[in-house]
Amino acid sequence: MSSASLIKNPTERVRLNPVVFYASTILILLLTAVLIAAPQQAGHMLGQAQDWLSKSFGWYYMLVIGAYLVFVVGLAFTSFGKLKLGTKDDTPDFSYGAWAGMLFSSGIGISLLYFGASEPLDHFFNPPEGVSASSAAARQAVQLTFLHWGLHGWAIYALVGLAVAYFAYRHNQPLALRSALYPLVGQRWVKGLAGDAVDGFGMFVTLLGLVTNLGIGAMQVSSGLEHLFGMQHNNTNLLIVILVMSTVATIAAVSGVENGIRRLSNLNIILFSGLLLFVLLAGDTLHLLNGFIQNIGDYLNGVVLKTFDLYVYTGDTAKSERWLGLWTLFYWAWWISWAPFVGMFIARISRGRTVRELVFGVLLIPLGFTLAWLSVFGNTALDLVMNQNVAELGKTALEQPSMAMYQLLDHFPASKIVIGVAIFVGFVLFLTPADSGAVMMANLSCKGGDVDEDAPHWLRILWSAIITLVTIGLLFAGNFEAMQTMVVLAGLPFSVVLLLFMWGLVKAMKQDAKAEEDRLEQMQAELLALGGREFIRR
């Protein structure tokens, strides 16, 4: 493949891609209008569709998620892992510390605060198999939570980030999803209908994930304010929270990657780490450390089994299928829905890194902290319910998950101050995925410009506004769960696009490796010929 393929003219200004922009916007607004206009009917139909998908394609989801993980790890360990995402003279745009911080923050949102205590408790009371509220259920609960937040999801981010970065920085192609299809369909189709379709659908899937994130974030912050200050839980207060969060995220998006997003990432790490250390040290430290080590062992020991576990032999097929659809399949689809914008953001900050650096950086840098957070908060919540008879926490986790974290912190010293910090942490955690998502949505809406040139400010502001309006409409219509269901449904076709990314990467890397071998052989032949002529002259 020629490195001149799909070259973007650096003198060509960034401009709107009308096909991608209008098609994705119309699709998004039509879906939102239907969900708002007929919430009950739409919710019922989407629920039936999700049940059908869980029964018919659960096996497929489990297979492809496992394939993504094996693929990216395999690439990193092969000779392809040495390939640089850029020319041989390119150096990383960001220091290793800044790069690691942005990797951490781009994929870890406020959902980790939302599910940190509530998910293990939900699995404890409603396990996919076994006796509920038992010691075995508690152990399995943390194992399942690790599965949903572990290597598989980060592998999806690594795959998209690698595919986009490889073609952008090694072949000077657009920093867009479409570029990964070039080896398969050629320049004409990538620049035309096929490329527009992939970018447009990628934007649609991304918006589903961003709306879900904003909705969860607003409920998390609103619940914290309700718990701390007694703020009434109503639509007016929820609207104020959403507008404030969206406004700050938009300002950060306009300030760009180098300024707003990088600084927010650094703040994320400090605040998040501080809250984790407080709970670890103020709680039963020895118990939490023992639990973390055992949780890691359970996760690694069962990672292959749980990757393919469809709970066929539970004796209650309907229950297990429902649990799988509500949890594991939802998570896999949710990771896929975040993959376009998180993957593009990872590509945007990874010029000059090698394939191996990107893969292991994405897989391991955020993973250690994520698992530590889930273990510390999950085991603290389970201990409160099982050993300290705090039954109210278990009930809250099932009925109002966004409140569970704050009720947990009530049992620690200086709880009011700590809860206030937790609310602020949630606010900041929401911002980085939200602003990076708006930037990447705007970038996908454009064409032209340099490879790593971001879209104009007005387009970033517009996408932030669209995300905000869609979230408000769905929350107020009482149909936010329908949007979560759409995440699962939309993840299915986009999972096929990711398989095509794998095919395109292997094909391109083989061609590049062959071209490099031919170049070295030619250089050796020229050197030998030159040496022969020198020998004859002597």
UniProtKB/TrEMBL annotation:
GO terms for molecular function: transmembrane transporter activity. Belongs to the BCCT transporter (TC 2.A.15) family. PANTHER family: HIGH-AFFINITY CHOLINE TRANSPORT PROTEIN, HIGH-AFFINITY CHOLINE TRANSPORT PROTEIN-RELATED. It holds the Pfam family BCCT. Keywords: Cell membrane, Coiled coil, Membrane, Transmembrane, Transmembrane helix, Transport. This is BCCT family transporter. The keyword Cytoplasm does not apply. Residues 506-533 form a coiled coil. GO terms for cellular component: plasma membrane. InterPro entries: BCCT_transptr. It comes from the Bacteria. It is a multi-pass membrane protein. It comes from Pseudomonas eucalypticola. The chain crosses the membrane at residues 20-38, 58-77, 98-117, 151-169, 197-218, 238-257, 269-289, 329-346, 358-377, 417-440, 461-480, 486-506. The keyword Secreted does not apply. It is found in: Cell membrane.
